Amino acid sequence: MDCIYKDPNQPTEARIKDLLSRMSLREKAGQMTQIERSVATPSVLKDLSLGSILSAGGSGPFDKALSADWADMVDGFQKSALESRLGIPLLYGIDAVHGNNSIYGATIFPHNVGLGATRDADLAQRIGVATALEVRASGIHYTFAPSVAVCRDPRWGRCYESYSSDTNIVRKMTSIITGLQGKPPPGHPKGYPFVAGRTNVVACAKHFVGDGGTHKGINEGNTILSYEDLERIHMMPYPDCISQGVATIMASHSSWNGTQMHAHRLLLTDVLKVKLGFKGFLISDWEGVDQLSKPNPLGSNYRTSLCIAVNAGIDMVMVPHGYSKFLEDLIDLVESGEIPMARIDDAVERILRVKFVARLFEYPYSDRSLLDTVGCKLHRDLAREAVRKSLVLLKNGKNPMKPFLPLDRKAKRVLVAGSNADNLGYQCGGWTATGCGASGRITIGTTVLEAIKEAVGDKTEVIYEQNPSPATFEGQDFSYAIVVVGEGPYAEFTGDNSELIIPFNANDVISLVTDRIPTLVILISGRPLVLEPWILEKMDALVAAWLPGSEGGGITDVIFGDYDFEGRLPVTWFKSVEQLPIHPEDNSYDPLFPFGFGLTYNMKGPLN
User: Fold this and answer.
1) In this structure, are residues 161 and 111 in contact, taking their beta carbons and an 8 Å threshold?
2) Hey, what's the torsion of the CAs at 491, 492, 493, 495, to 10 degrees?
3) Please, which residues bridge with residue 206 across strands?
4) Is 578 annotated as catalytic?
5) CB 8: neighbour CB atoms within 10 A?
6) Res 2: pLDDT
7) Which residues of 218-256 are buried (b: 16+ CB within 10 A; e: fewer)?
8) What integer pLDDT is reported at residue 608 of this predicted model?
9) pTM for this entry
10) 8-state DSSP, 362
11) DSSP helix/strand/coil, 221
């Protein structure tokens, strides 16, 4: 073999140095480019030596495409990339943030807020292992996960992507990285990326830094904090990620004290790369450079913004569509001396390092033997376990001495009602099938209603009315009701919400039912929502189920008493939005339910 970079027995750094020495500026710029699948063509991949492709939320080969169809597509793109002059393989990325959630039939795990309620680092790691298998089965090498945001305000539309408002819980749950990428061996160099093998993926800790701390929870807003507080609250999970060999980190669209993160050389380079010793690559968020071009103090054109972002420390740019302009401007900026060649070489070295570590040069194509893992019983059982452990019991009985739960599965007749009882899309939340999620039967899974029907006795009659009326109760002798209400799906800014009212007239449904029969209310939501005292008093029991994903059976496992409740609030449950933001360290802390609260069957008092 005359090329050191093609020899898998050579040290990684020697392979990087050799390949870099052979690359033209145009090829280096190509490696720094990530484009969206919809603009990728064989000629573009071959001629421009592009570094990466991503699928935006819902951007697949066709509607309800299966993992094998995705693998065909990704392998097709890879074939074109390998036909480029130097044959550098592509890295294909996707938002697999609660399972391989874009792909029909994949196991959908609870969103991070629910996993934060479990406080179970081993569970998070096992979910990482399962997710990696299903992602690799689809031919994809790279997931934009995990979010290690510390959500300090539930008005934020990405609240559910955060494990907790508490930094220590977020730090604990970074164990998912070891699940996704594999565990680095003893003595692995600090800060150096690590991917164990072909059943693992390249992970991405995001969004650096302060995304969960913006003023009033506005998505991509401004985090106003001292450096000490930014470090103490929002930065602490990143050293944990880096110590596990996280291969990539994504910059945040948000700002810190008025300066956008994508332009923040101090934080991106001096802190992340130098102080924290991160040796993987730093990727921009979607249109991260374009966002700098919006009217702001940094100037108003793309070329200037690109210069600022790359010099600040961005290594790969999620362009994602206008790659011609990106490449033209980047090459011009280097040729004019505005971006030093040393900065380009550093960026490309980091990108190649991740590709070599992930063994993409040896194994560029998908492994079809993994297809049997997608949505398999083992993974669905794991998701069901995660649902069970995530549930938080907030109320059990109008009189605490007379608990309402567990429910009698042999009751004669049961009413099931509410907007979220039989809606798999609502149960999964955002980042499922599409970016913002959708209503209805969007993937394969079990709704709460279906799980109830499976769980009750043969002689129990289950009557379902999404929106019951007084006529529903005429001549019916219901033993009890299960009312499942909550949010519809959302993502990013579409989820920003200053009111946090339970939608779909939930209080009317709860009130109508609770006035007539004893009722368990299950709330499906990505965050705490307003619970007025009058409506809370009417409920016999209340369970926060977060966004549980595809395995509704995890809910019935607990409400019928096969398992006890284990979940504890990963965030504070506020009384009114006027209190926000609200934290245990506040002098005036007066929550509806405190951080860490959760009841169980076996204890008189709460878990905390």
Assistant:
1) yes
2) 40
3) 147, 250
4) no
5) 13
6) 80
7) bbbbbbebeeeebeebbbbbbbbbbbbbbbbbbbbbbbb
8) 52
9) 0.98
10) T
11) coil
> In this structure, are residues 547 and 114 in contact, taking their beta carbons and an 8 Å threshold?
yes
Q: Please give the single-letter amino acid code of residue 519.
A: T
Tokens encoding 117: 């309620």
Where residue 602 falls among pLDDT bands split at 50, 70, 90?
confident
Extract the tokens encoding 191: 């800060």
Please state the rounded mean pLDDT for residues 60-83: 98
At residue 293 the predicted structure's pLDDT band, cuts being 50, 70 and 90, is confident
HEC string of 545-558 equals EECCCCECHHHHHH
Would the pLDDT of 606 be above 60?
A: no
How far apart, in whole angstroms, are the C-alpha atoms of residue 225 and residue 476? 58
Residue 581: cis peptide before it, omega within 30 degrees of 0: yes
Side chain identity at residue 131, one-letter code: T
290, 492, 496, 566: the catalytic one is 492
pLDDT at 123: 99
Evaluate whether 536 touches 519 at the Cβ level (below 8 Å): no
State the pLDDT at residue 607: 55
pLDDT value, residue 445: 98
In this structure, of 147-151, 299-303, 512-516, the range with the lowest mean pLDDT score is: 299-303
Whether the CB-CB separation of 160 and 526 falls below 8 Å is answered with yes
| DSSP assignment string, 559-597 | HTTSS------SS-B-S-GGG-S--TT-TT---SB-TT-
CB 517 within 8 A of CB 413: no
- Flag whether pLDDT at 604 surpasses 80: no
297: pLDDT strictly greater than 50: no
> Does position 456 have pLDDT exceeding 90, yes or no?
yes
Looking at residue 489, the DSSP 8-state letter turns out to be P
For residues 112 and 546, what is the distance between their CA atoms, to the nearest angstrom?
Answer: 9
DSSP state, 432?
A: B
Strands of 461-465's sheet in order across: 392-396, 541-546, 519-524, 480-486, 413-417, 461-465
Query: Residue 93 corresponds to which tokens in the numbers above?
Result: 């990325």
Amino acid identity for residue 191 in this structure: G
Alpha-carbon span 315 to 17, nearest angstrom: 17
Percent above pLDDT 90 for the chain: 97
Maximum CA extent, the chain? 85
Spatial separation of the C-alpha atoms in residues 22 and 441, rounded to whole Å: 51
Is 211 a residue of the active site? no
Using alpha carbons, list the distances in angstroms from residue 528 to 154, 156, 544.
7, 11, 8
- Mean predicted lDDT score pLDDT of the chain: 97
134, 161, 211, 285: the active-site residue:
285
